[in-house]
Amino acid sequence: MIVISHQKGWKIINQRSHGLLAAMLAYQYDIDLPNDIVVPAIIAIAEHDDGVEETAEERNLTKAGAPRHFMVSDEMNKFDLTQKLNVMEISSAKSQLNALLTSLHIKFLYSGEQRKTDKDLDNFLTEQENFRASILKNLKIDKEHADRLYRFLEWCDAFSLLICMDKIQPEGRKMEVSQSPDGDMNQTFYNPNNDISVEPWCFKNDKFAVFYEYKIIKQLKFTSIQEFNAICKSTPVQRQEFTFSKS
Question: Distance between CA atoms of 111 and 108, rounded to whole angstroms?
Fold first, then answer.
């Protein structure tokens, strides 16, 4: 979950909503890929964090009973093997390319220091290395092409997170997004019309709209994940819209 402090309580954005926003950016991105590549890639971008019901996951409450933002670490926020197996099963059932990109994203997230101390994670990542090698061979895709496709996913994912976490700076101040599929470093900012813009511009259309959905949870702490889940389910969904424009 993405959890942001709000004047009325907590703003909760599910990873699936963030993923959908990332897919909207991918759909608008001006990249020359055939249909049998770009469609599985956009699906992978939308679904790469799926695999669990977030508001029912015990680890998504802190010790103090507050909703836990996904970037906040504690002893419960460890590598979730079950979720990763689920998301790989889902992606593999769609297509090998979908599975390849999802596996590369897991590698991107977890191939750091945590791997050295978590045997389950290390074993899983080793299995994924072999799995990706098999897919590349089956699809006759070289590593350079696979890496370019993954940068497409990672760029859209990073940009979506900047939007969902309200990280884009006000007053036209520019900030980096991530490395683009072709190696450029894009910058984003709010233009004078308060639309989101990007330099260099990398989208097919000069102007388009995107959105994510969220909920405002007024209760600040919870005695159990079951209580939190029940309140989330009964809370109305709201929609935050953004306009992108070239100038």
Answer: 6
Q: How far apart are CA 90 and CA 146, in angstroms?
A: 20
Q: Are 84 and 30 in contact (CB under 8 A)?
A: no
Question: What does the pLDDT profile of the chain (247 residues) look like in tens digits?
Answer: 999 999 999 999 999 999 999 999 999 999 999 999 999 999 999 987 776 678 888 889 999 999 999 887 655 456 778 878 888 998 899 999 999 999 999 998 888 777 778 888 899 999 999 999 999 999 999 999 999 999 999 999 999 999 999 999 988 999 999 999 988 899 999 999 999 999 999 999 999 999 999 999 999 999 999 999 999 999 999 999 999 999 7
Sign of dihedral through CA atoms 105, 108, 109, 114?
Answer: positive
The number of folded domains in the chain is 1
Query: From CA 83, how far away is CA 204, in angstroms rounded?
Result: 34
For residue 71, which phi and psi values (nearest 5 degrees)?
-90, -5
User: Which residues contact residue 174 at a Cβ distance below 8 angstroms, ignoring those fewer than 6 apart?
Assistant: 187, 188, 189, 199
Closest to 156 (Cα-Cα) out of 25, 20, 13: 25
Domain that holds residue 110: 2-245
Tokens representing 237 are 């969904």
CB under 8 Å to 50, separation ≥6 — which residues?
A: 15, 16, 19, 86, 87, 90
